[in-house]
Amino acid sequence: MSPFDDRPAWTDAIDNPYLHGLHAPTVRETKALDLPVEGELPEGLYGAYVRNGPNAVHAPNNLYHWFDGDGMVHGLYFRDGRVEYRSRFVQTQGLADETEAGRSIWPGVMGPFDFDLPRHFMKDTANTDVILHGDRLLALWYLCGAPYDLDPRTLETRGVADFGGRWSSTVSAHPKVDERTGELVFFTLSDFEPPYMHYGVVGADGVLAHTIPIDLPGARAPHDITLTERFSIVHDFPLFHDPAVLREHGYRVARFYRDLPSRFGVLPRRGGTDDVRWFEFEAGYVLHMVNAWEEGDWIVMDGCFQPDPTIRRRPEEGELASMLGYLRIRAHLHRWEMNLATGETRERPLDDLNVEFCLPDTRRYGQKTRYSWHQHIPVDSYTVEFHALVKYDHSDGSCVRFDYEPGWIASESPFAPHIGATDEDDGWIVTIATHRDTGASEGWVFEAQEIERGPIARIPLPTRVPSGFHAKWLPGERLWNGAV
Ligand SMILES: [Fe+2]
Fold it and tell me: Domain-by-domain residue ranges, the chain?
């Protein structure tokens, strides 16, 4: 038995690196109790690491892209000195329809799209993000999809969240929860006509409390949204497609407009369309922000900036060049500052290392944070691979790192707080890593204050965990002490 035996047989016939090796999809759902641990599990580690990612069940009917695989959430549950692992597909409506048909129905993000298909013109896989809001673990998709509601303890899909019967549209990946108020702030995009963005707030009770259209000059593709104690910040970057080309040809062809600014729109959390105040910065693109906060009249926002998001195709890669190009990231830690009293702006790089998939202590979204943990991606990577864990100190842009052993590739790595701690980085970093050649997978736990020591505990998993997208830490007191 090889750990790769659980991949769908049809992958053998398709020459696409996101269907093989580290990225080979699995069709096996797994539940494993009381896993062995190498090293020492910290006594205070109480909660769950959950990570979403793509696992294509059916052979694609167009050029496969990493964003097309059906969503599967992997969870490592830490309680009473024991670890459990479970993985489950997000049971999307699309996966159910395709399973009944025995084949792919929807095309993936590379197009051409089919505007006659029900619900959406391309595959909506819920494979990108996971976020805990109240009693829901929301599984969300990159290009705005149906928000799937999972049980955070079992990862079972409970249905599509409608926020108290008040929302029947899509939600982007990366909504933010303000842990002080329990509110969830989100946006969604429209491809063809104004308004090209809607912004919304879901109350702590899970009911939609506020929604407004945002005036954008055209179809846009921001990926993240940020919040401070009082404000929300929506993003508008000069990397976008032409709706007419999309409608006429069925392809989303993105172009980078170097002469247009990057813009951030600041509005009070429950503000109106006319309250949005735009600030302009250097052209570029940002997939993920670390955090934003207020300092007097200033809003400070740190994130992973791509000054040149031009798609990096290599002609020698032939048909795959476009798909591979869309995934190549050149991003550094950057700071943007906006003065609400004077309108003044400032921006500067905090470092130059190629990093992405960044997380602070997510309980502190909207409050000033000093630390964040990122993944380093080698600039010459053929596919997206995370080769090192990097811890940033945002007070001076300095970082420490731990380079994974050769062949091992980790996942996005959230911070698990030590309950009762006073230091911001008193806790652990948890991740799942997979060896690209052997297919072995392990859970890893680092001391957040000393990541450079490497994992203090390694948990060999009974099955291969393919590469994936976003991860979060779910605090044990929310999972098991009655709060959920
Ligand atoms: Fe993302």
Answer: 3-480
Distance (angstroms) between ligand 1 centre and the Cα of 151 equals: 21
- Protein residues near ligand 1, an ion, with CB under 5 A: 173
**358 alpha carbon to ligand 1 midpoint, in Å?**
10
Mean pLDDT of successive 10-residue stretches along the chain, which has 484 residues: 94 97 97 97 96 98 97 97 97 98 97 94 97 97 97 98 98 98 98 95 98 96 98 98 92 94 98 98 98 98 96 89 92 98 98 98 98 96 96 98 98 95 96 97 98 98 98 96 64
The number of CA neighbours under 13 Å toward the Cβ of 176 is 29
Residues contacting 340, CB < 8 A, separation 6+: 266, 277, 297, 298, 299
403 contacts 388 by C-beta, under 8 angstroms: yes
d(CA 304, ligand 1 centre) in Å: 11
Contact 465, 477 (CB under 8 A): no
Output DSSP code: residue 362.
Answer: G
DSSP class of 404: P
**Distance (Å, rounded) from C-alpha 335 to C-alpha 482?**
39
Q: From ligand 1's centre to the CA of 241, what distance in Å?
A: 19
CA of 357 to the centre of ligand 1 (A): 7
If you measure from the C-alpha of residue 471 to the centroid of ligand 1, how many angstroms do you get, rounded to a whole number? 10
CA of residue 133 to ligand 1 center, whole Å: 18
Q: How far is CA 84 from the centre of its chain?
A: 23
Whole-number Å distance, alpha carbon 470 to ligand 1 midpoint, is 7
Domain 3-480 in CATH 3.30.230.70? The answer is no
Beta bridge partners of 210: 201
188 CA to centre of ligand 1 in angstroms: 14
Token pair listed for 391: 């811890």
- Based on C-alpha coordinates, what's the Rg of the chain? 21
Cα distance between residue 51 and residue 148, in whole Å: 14
CB 188 within 8 A of CB 168: no
Is the Cβ–Cβ distance between 466 and 443 less than 8 Å? no
pTM over 0.85: yes
The dihedrals phi and psi of 107, each to the nearest 5 degrees, come to -75, 160
Distance 350 CA to ligand 1 centre (A): 21
